[in-house]
Design goal:
The chain is an alpha/beta fold and about 1100 residues long. The protein is built from 38 helices and 33 strands. An eight-stranded mixed sheet has the order 1-7-6-5-2-3-4-8. Strands 19, 20, 23, 24, 25, 26, 27 and 28 form an eight-stranded mixed sheet that branches. A six-stranded parallel sheet has the order 11-10-14-17-9-18, sandwiched between helices.
């Protein structure tokens, strides 16, 4: 009997021993935990000659009924056993040589001829060994796995790994034991086919789409695990049976589920989907979910959207979801500052603000400026933001916050921070633990704002979204991903099945019209009027400016002294801008406005004269405060008597100076009035142009039979004027009906109706989208021309119409897009829609300069009011340039709101869509966890994606990415182009620090290509000799890894030089060994 030998697997290895021991025609039997194609490759010459190999997997592997995911702790080791076919983690180096495909093909052929695999079915233990039966029998044991590490080709993670070689008679016993269990059906099951399938997967041609999902699966796998936890909506509530749920499109359902998930996990969420994507409905589904769980819900919205929100909860005929019986309360943003009185049916004095479990804030960007106080001493008041935070969110029960806004970021990331702070009660510790970030949220925002400020100072051509994304760190994206959902129209069109939704209509190129003010020869034009307007003092609105110093305390709280000048100049600026805006809107609106102001001034002059002649002492004036202007709506009736009534004793005033200033203004206004009095409707070129447009549209509709026209103006005066002129014209010429809506009064229409409230008019104007059949089944009439102010420019769905006219151009381009968003909506029945913009007849530079001049005049006020010593920003000029570029763009195309933002839209930032892609794929095709690493596909390139290779790598060295810049860590993606630089080295087309761009490229190249591109595959196989000669791609892979290492080291050294404390030692990477290739895509 020969004595056993010990092979230490260092100087004597199992592999070397087997090369001598295995002879042609031998039979092998192996029991081991795993089998690797690289071990086959190491012993290929010997193994190809054997008669048979019987292989037992010692633990359950490749069995059909997969263990449920719930038992992940058992599932993971089993997965790693199955995956070891394509190399274990210690065979990374071999795998990175990219010859896996050729080896797998040869190995699969060999298995088909000579090998049978069976797997242990039970939880029982089988130890690992290997028998070789030839002229004499030998046994090797213990043998953990059949991999290159186990047979001594690599070290693996073994500290010592000795194997005993035994001879007969001992080896005979091992062979007998093996035979005994080999045929026991209750212990083993045949898995040969599964193993062949697995190995074949490594060399089959793959479809580009499959590899795209393999990449996503690896990168976002953890997300899938999160999805199945308890923060997901609880379906037992039955909310999926609700009427609202069944009215949602797929993309809205995805959002609703994601919102509930985020509200449960982070207590807050911003839904920032683009205009026209139905945020209200998505929010209603979320509200229904919480109401079914017996929660109290409050909707806070701007007053003009109140009707909308009320409709969905009341038992009205036109409430499409009346059967859901929603019961949320609706209050307005302005109600936060009120402590008594009624808002609708709600008595604000008795309201328990702290008792709401969920607050939905519509148009939440109105809260973007954060908390502030006005007034001093006893008069100190919190602004709406603080009222909301203190009264509603911090007080009483725990309150979740859902914010809706198409424009959450206006001027910088602080806008976003202020809105998100509502969700965590202004207390960062409440969210820091929940976010999966390395830094606290305050630091994340501070760093992001610093990066943003640096970016905004760049030259316009360098100020690209991409350069901003590069300067933001990974935590910022993680945070955005956690608490925002923002999808653009393009996104929905690209990634959802629009067949169910209906296409978005095609946007025609906008029509730009610049009519002169009038066709009269002698008449005045815009420029002359502008010059006169700039001379106005508007002293009528700032009486306290003329108080004698000694008497001032009687009227003005001395503690407020500091911001008085600022406030008053601010008010003058508002007035001046308003007159300008009115002039651009219509001559009529301008005329009645200057007449109102003049009447007010003349009345005051008469009062002063009466005082001088001794008949009157007290004068009734009004003080305006800029808090009374609500953004864009600061243009209704405040030219007359609005504002805080203030009775001033003229004896306390320097009334002589005041009267002088008033007289100057009165004269300028009188002159203006005379200059424009000849411009009657017949001579109003702008109006006549509009009438021509309307008749052209009605006679030659854009879409068959659609005669509808939607007309917007910022001012109710202009709307009155247009209605007066347009309605009879349309009725007499075409027999069609017209209506008007302004926010202040009930609507008017040429139809004989019992009621002319806003909802009735909108329903008759857009009968399909507003469910007219349900509401007014007995009213056969329709409205074809609707003239309205911005009271309907947000949140209304008027997509029956296909023609939108901006009779005046709003100075905020976002508003123009919002107006157009009323008809440019998902599910429109119109194939094409048209936007028409009326511009003042003055070139854009002059127009903006003028706007700049008005604003600059007021900048002096900022200086006195805030103590800032730099009233006019050097960046202001840049901003005007930017605004000019935006307005120019608006003249030529209809842009999405995201493109209009002067900063950056958060649409561009999240990786949510890739997660949703993956979720959808896994729902349909099941998990991809059994897929081998190292797979590839070949795909055709395009102009944006030159020929080259995209590598998806996984880092195995925990020390890398110290800088936290790679958003996908531990995964890295690099797109190496086939071009060479001057040194003959490959060029990186997109580096690993731009994961969003790279994923976008990958998606665009691969998505939808469900079958391999065989011609390209044949070319690739010819080039690489069927995968045996992969040197070119191996070199590219090495280069890709070096590019990651270099970029990271550059960053480390930069940080080191800039004085940050970092450990350079910790982040060294040895290169290829540290990266594992997940998959790659060759672009041809």
């Amino acid at each position: 009997m020969q004595m056993p030998e010990m092979l230490d697997n260092v100087s004597k290895t199992v592999k070397d021993d087997l090369t001598v021991t295995i002879k042609k025609g031998d039979k092998l039997s192996v029991a081991a935990a795993c089998f690797s194609i690289y071990a086959y490759q190491a012993l290929k010459k010997q193994l190809d000659g054997i008669a048979e190999l019987r292989f037992i997997f010692t633990s359950p592997t490749f069995l059909q009924e997969k263990a449920p995911k719930a038992k992940r702790e058992f599932y993971i080791p089993r997965l790693s056993r199955e995956r070891s076919l394509y190399g274990t983690e210690f065979e990374v180096k071999l795998r990175n040589e990219l010859t896996q495909k050729a080896i797998a093909r040869e190995c699969a052929d060999w298995i088909r001829k000579r090998v049978q695999f069976r797997s242990n079915l039970t939880g029982g233990n089988i130890s690992g060994f290997m028998n070789v039966e030839g002229e004499e029998a030998t046994t090797y044991m213990p043998l953990h796995g059949f991999t290159t590490a186990d047979i001594g080709c690599e070290r693996g993670n073994n500290i010592i790994n000795p194997v005993n070689k035994m001879y007969a008679p001992l080896s005979g016993e091992y062979i007998r034991m093996f035979d005994q269990i080999w045929n026991d059906k209750s212990l083993l099951e045949d898995v040969t086919e599964q193993v062949i399938d697995g190995i074949t997967a490594a060399y089959n041609e793959n479809s580009p789409e499959f590899i795209y999902f393999v990449a996503l699966y690896n990168i976002f796998n953890e997300f899938l695990e999160d999805v199945s936890e308890d923060v997901l909506p609880n379906e037992a509530t039955g909310f999926k049976e609700s009427k609202i749920w069944n009215k949602l499109y797929d993309f809205q359902r995805d959002a609703a589920l994601a919102i509930i998930n985020k509200l449960e996990k982070f207590n807050g969420c911003i839904l920032a989907d683009s205009v026209g994507l139905g945020k209200t409905f998505t929010a209603l589904a979320v509200i229904k979910y919480y109401e079914l769980r017996n929660r109290m819900v409050l909707v806070l919205c701007p007053k003009k959207l109140g009707d909308n929100w009320h409709t969905f909860k009341e038992n009205y005929l036109n409430n499409p979801i009346a059967s859901d019986r929603l019961r949320y309360d609706v209050l307005y943003h302005t109600d936060l500052s009120r402590d008594h009185g009624l808002s609708g049916d709600i008595d604000l004095a008795k309201l328990n603000w702290g008792n709401y479990d969920l607050v939905v804030i519509d148009e939440s960007h109105n809260f973007r400026n954060g908390g502030d106080y006005s007034g001093r001493g006893d008069d100190k008041r919190e602004n709406r933001y603080l009222q909301l935070l203190n009264k509603v969110i911090r007080k009483g029960v725990k309150t979740k916050v859902l914010m809706l806004s198409a424009t959450p970021v206006n001027n910088g990331f602080s806008d976003l921070r202020h809105q998100l702070e509502l969700a965590y009660e202004g207390n960062p510790t409440l969210i820091n633990d929940k976010l999966d970030t390395t830094k606290p949220i305050d630091v994340i925002f501070r760093n992001a704002q610093t990066a943003f400020n640096r970016w905004s100072k760049l030259e316009p051509e360098e100020r690209t979204t991409e350069s901003l994304l590069r300067s933001l760190d990974f935590d910022f994206f993680t945070m955005l991903d956690s608490v925002t959902i923002a999808r653009s129209r393009k996104h929905i069109e690209k990634y959802y099945d629009t067949a169910a939704i209906g296409e978005f209509p095609e946007r025609m190129k906008p029509m730009t019209i610049r009519p002169k003010m009038t066709d009269l020869e002698s008449a005045i034009d815009y420029d002359d009027i502008y010059d006169q307007l700039m001379k106005l003092n508007l002293a009528i609105y700032i009486p306290t400016d003329f108080l004698l110093e000694s008497r001032r305390a009687k009227y003005v709280d001395p503690s407020k002294n500091i911001d008085r000048a600022g406030r008053e100049i601010g008010i003058r600026r508002l007035m001046c801008i308003n007159l300008l805006k009115r002039l651009e809107s219509s001559v009529y609106s301008f005329r009645i406005t200057i007449d109102r102001v003049r009447a007010l001034i003349d009345g005051t002059i008469a009062d002063i004269d009466a005082y001088v002649s001794g008949t009157k002492r007290i004068i009734n004036t009004q003080e305006l405060s800029d808090t009374e202007f609500d953004g864009d709506d600061a243009n209704t009736d405040f030219f007359e008597n609005s504002g805080k009534k203030l009775d001033i004793d003229l004896a306390d005033m320097d009334y002589i100076s005041w009267r002088e200033k008033l007289t100057e203004d009165s004269e300028i206004l009188e002159l203006l009035s005379v200059l424009i009095e000849d411009i009657t409707p017949e001579h109003d070129t702008k109006l006549q142009t509009l009438l021509g447009l309307i008749s052209e549209k009605i006679q030659h509709p854009l879409n068959p039979g659609n005669k509808k026209v939607l007309l917007f103006s910022a001012f109710s005066d202009t709307v009155d004027y247009l209605y007066r002129e347009v309605a009879p014209f349309v009725k007499e010429r075409f027999g069609l009906d017209t209506a008007m809506i302004t926010g202040t009064t009930d609507g008017r229409t040429t139809l004989k109706l019992k009621r002319t409230d806003m909802n009735t008019i909108l329903t008759l104007f857009s009968p399909l989208s507003k469910d007219k059949e349900l509401l007014m089944p007995d009213t056969p009439v329709e409205i074809d021309v609707l003239i309205a102010t911005d009271c309907i420019s947000e949140g209304q769905n008027l997509q029956d119409c296909d023609y939108c006219v901006n009779y005046d151009i709003h100075w905020n381009p976002v508003r123009i897009i919002q107006r157009f968003g009323r008809i440019d909506r998902i599910g429109s029945r119109n194939a094409r829609i048209q936007l028409v913009n009326f511009w003042p007849n003055i070139d854009l530079d002059k127009y903006l300069e003028l706007k700049g001049r008005v604003e600059t005049r007021m900048k002096a006020s900022v200086m006195t009011a805030t103590g800032d010593d730099n009233p006019i920003d050097p960046e202001e000029q840049g901003d005007l340039e930017y605004r000019k570029a935006q307005l120019e763009k608006l003249q030529n195309e209809v842009v999405d709101i995201e493109e209009m933002q002067s900063g950056v839209s958060i649409m561009d930032l999240g990786l949510n869509e890739f997660r949703l892609d993956l979720l959808e794929y896994v729902k349909r095709h099941g998990e991809l966890d059994g897929t081998p690493f190292g797979l590839h596909a070949v795909v055709g390139g395009n102009a944006d994606s030159p020929s080259g290779t995209i590598f998806i790598l996984k880092n195995r060295n925990a020390n890398i990415n110290i800088q936290n810049q790679n958003q996908l860590h531990p995964f890295y993606m690099v797109y190496v182009s086939d071009e060479k630089n001057a040194d003959g080295e490959p060029v990186v087309h997109i580096d690993h620090l731009q994961p969003k761009k790279l994923l976008d490229s990958l998606r665009q190249l691969c998505r939808g290509k469900e079958t391999p591109e065989y011609e390209l595959c044949h070319a690739f196989n010819a080039e690489t000799k069927d995968g045996r000669d992969m040197r070119h791609y191996s070199d590219l892979l090495r280069f890709a890894v070096e590019s990651i290492v270099d970029l990271n080291e550059d960053d480390s050294i930069d940080s080191f030089l800039s004085g940050k404390q970092i450990s350079l030692a910790a982040s060294t990477i040895d290169g290829l060994e540290d990266f594992e290739l997940v998959c790659f895509i060759t672009v041809k």
